[in-house]
Amino acid sequence: MPLAGYGARLLARLIDFGVVLLLNAVVNGWFVWRYFEETAPYLREAVRRAMAGDSSREGLPAIGEQAGGLQIAILVIATALWFAYEVPTMASGGQTLGKRLLRIRAVPLDADQPLGFGRATRRWSTMGMPTLLWFCCGLGLLLQFVDAVSALFDHPLRQALHDKRAQTVVVQVPRADDPDTPTDRADPEPQGDTP
Predict the structure, then answer these.
(1) In whole angstroms, what is the distance from residue 144 CA to residue 76 CA?
(2) Is residue 186 over pLDDT 50?
(3) Which residue intervals make up region (Disordered) (predicted)?
């Protein structure tokens, strides 16, 4: 099977990102709302002062005590939702919803078989676990960006760092109605130099 193109991989990832974002809006929404309630007085006053040209930090309202815990809870829940969305589907068929829609699939380098739970977890953890570091000055986001663009510099297999760790490659899935798709039946006229 031919390797999947960069555009198809990016679009599939964006679709998956949208699905995980929707899941987070439903499951994590209350925690996000509470976090903004804890930080809103500080943010409102800081913005008001910035608009007035005042750069002083004295007398700003304190951020609520629960803000730090809520931030960690939001990131842990977001990471868990991403794991629950991606790993089981990748383990069984090598495709998330985005990959299925774009007709691409992750397969092991050594055989055309399902990834299995261990390999799917290794693949996901390289790009998913840095989500827990987003609150550290964006370090997690930087690590995820490096992972994502690494496929642009890998030749000839176009493997991102998460593909390298799990020993996978992303391929284009042929259409069922494609005449070049291999079939299970024997070819009536074998190819080669036979007369």
Answers:
(1) 16
(2) no
(3) 172-195
Residue 22 host element (H or E): helix 6-27
Does the pLDDT value for residue 84 go beyond 50? yes
Check residue 118 and give its pLDDT.
94
Task: Give me the half-sphere count of Cα atoms (radius 13 Å) on the Cβ side of residue 82.
Answer: 23
Which whole-number Å values give the CA distances from 139 to 75, 132, 133, 151, 161, in the listed order? Answer: 13, 9, 6, 20, 16
Q: Count other C-beta atoms under 10 Å from residue 85's C-beta.
A: 18
Tokens of 39: 């930080």
Q: What's the longest Cα–Cα distance across the chain?
A: 93
Q: How confident is the model at residue 9 (pLDDT cuts 50, 70, 90)?
A: very high
Question: What is the C-alpha to C-alpha distance for residues 117 and 92, in angstroms, rounded to an integer?
Answer: 8
* Structural tokens at position 116: 């299995």
